[in-house]
UniProtKB/TrEMBL annotation:
Domain DUF3533 positions: 17-340
Listed transmembrane segments: 169-188, 208-231, 243-262, 268-290, 326-345
Protein name (record): DUF3533 domain-containing protein
Cellular component annotations (GO), alphabetically ordered: membrane
Keywords: Membrane, Transmembrane, Transmembrane helix
A Pfam family recorded for this sequence: DUF3533
Annotated InterPro entries: DUF3533, MNNG_permease-like
Length: 373
């Protein structure tokens, strides 16, 4: 978690910013906390900081609004009629980004620092003013002294992913669901074909064409089921047809990749070891979809190899409506997986047919097709 960076953007340059830095230093790089970095705000605006969080440069950001200290002083000296304590701290979150990890780590840590800063400001900078009675007896002054600042939460995207009821499922077992649907279909299909000796009955070209059709149509239907299952729990999160079809399309590609991988595994790996290889593939893909390799141990950079990582990072962009856009490498990687497996799948099918023909020939020569096995 310490590799995740949260920006501290002090546009005020006064005591409010100092209080925020003190709050951040107390927990900076502690276990379970991200790294808080004090960024240079020259040439920036709070909106640009929000955009940086949206684009993925920072995992979150806490902003001290311009002129916050000046407004506080004007309230104390009686020149301001009202004081708005909410116009001091705003922290931006992007909960779409690996929600299960984000909510428990980055979101909680950022909210803790942002809510601690007002208390530090009151203790360090307001208490001396109260002791010396250096303030006017006005409503604005009393309001400013009683509550000098409140931290306001804002979403870097257009809406909160927290409102999506299926977020925890997608962020945990979401990558396993498409793989399982392909696995059970392939096992059923191969079981039927083997029991009826279908692999030995037709020429390889017919089998390759048939398997190509199956590896396209079944993933299309199963990915539609996955999309319907996910969007059936949308809650108050606003979805649209474009978002649904984008989810369906990328899940279709991921499902086709999973189909071909499992088809090759069941063709080349002996049946006694198929379950071990399958479970290994599932576990690695599940792990790849749970966290961003950029903030985990360097060993987990291996996750870039697995298609589930690129599938899930594309989903982040879809649900955030353009946030953390990594499509320049996620889509080409998925396309590369798909093209490679479509090229290798016919060879696996020919190997499967060759084995089936040997078995069929053995039974035929021994006249033992109906004998106990």
């Amino acid at each position: 978690m310490a590799r995740a960076t949260v920006a501290l953007a002090d546009f005020d340059g006064g005591d409010f910013g100092e209080a925020l830095r003190i709050a951040a230093r107390a927990d900076n790089q502690s276990y379970g906390f991200p790294t808080f970095v004090d960024i240079d705000t020259s040439g920036l605006s709070p909106e640009q900081v929000r955009e940086d969080v949206f684009r993925g440069k920072y995992w979150a950001a806490i902003v001290v609004h311009p002129g916050a200290s000046a407004r506080f002083e004007k309230a104390l000296d009686g020149t301001a009629a009202v004081y708005n304590a909410t116009d001091v701290y705003t922290y931006y979150l992007l909960t779409t980004r690996y929600y299960s990890l984000y909510a428990s780590g980055i979101q909680a840590s950022t909210a803790t620092v942002a809510s601690t800063a007002p208390g530090i400001f009151s203790g360090r900078f307001v208490a001396p003013k109260l002791a010396s009675a250096r303030y006017h007896n006005t409503t604005a002054a009393v309001s400013a002294l009683a509550g000098p600042a409140y931290s306001i939460r804002a979403n870097a995207a257009s809406q909160e992913f927290d409102h999506f009821d299926g977020k925890s499922i997608i962020g945990t077992i979401g990558a396993v669901f498409p793989i399982l649907m392909q696995f059970f279909f392939i096992m059923a299909l191969n079981g039927i074909f083997n029991s009826k000796h279908v692999f030995a009955a037709y020429n390889p070209r017919a089998h390759i064409y048939a398997r190509f059709i199956c590896s396209t149509i079944w993933p299309l239907l199963s990915s539609l089921c996955a999309a319907g299952w996910a969007f059936g729990f949308e809650g108050s999160f606003r979805t649209n047809p474009k978002m649904f079809f984008a989810f369906w399309s990328i899940t279709w590609v991921f499902s086709m990749i999973s189909f071909d991988i499992l088809d090759i595994i069941t063709a080349l790996i002996p049946a006694a070891f198929t379950s071990f290889v399958f479970l290994t593939w599932v576990i690695f893909n599940l792990a790849a979809s749970l966290a961003d390799p950029a903030i985990t141990n360097h060993w987990f950079r291996i996750n870039y190899f697995f298609p589930s990582l690129h599938w899930f990072q594309t989903l982040i962009t879809i649900f955030s409506e353009g946030g953390v856009n990594r499509l320049h490498y996620t889509l080409p990687t998925l396309a590369g997986w798909l093209v490679l497996l479509k090229f290798l799948s016919p060879f696996a099918m020919m190997y499967r047919i060759k084995k089936a023909q040997v078995v069929f020939q053995y039974y035929n020569e021994k006249d033992a097709l109906d004998a106990p096995r």
